Amino acid sequence: MPAYAKTVAAAIALWIAGATGQASAQVKVGAVLSITGPASFLGDPEKKTLEIYVDDINAKGGVNGQKLQLVAYDDGADANAARTFATRLVEEDKVVAMVGGTTTGATLAMIPLFEEAQIPFISLAGAIQIIEPVRKWVFKTPHTDKMACEKIFADLKQRNLTTVALISGTDAFGKSMRDQCVAVAPKAGITVAHEEAYGPRDSDMTPQLTNIKAKTGVQAVINPGFGQGPAIVTRNYRQLGITLPFYQSHGVASKQFIDLAGPAADGVRLPAAALLVAEKLPDSDPQKPVVVAYTRTYQQKTGQPISTFGGHAYDGLMIFVEAAKRAGSFDKAKVRDEIEKTKNFIGTGGVVNMSPTDHLGLDLSAFRMLEIKGGDWTLVQ
Question: 117 to each of 72, 113, 136, 303, how far by Cα in Å?
Answer without folding.
Answer: 18, 6, 12, 38
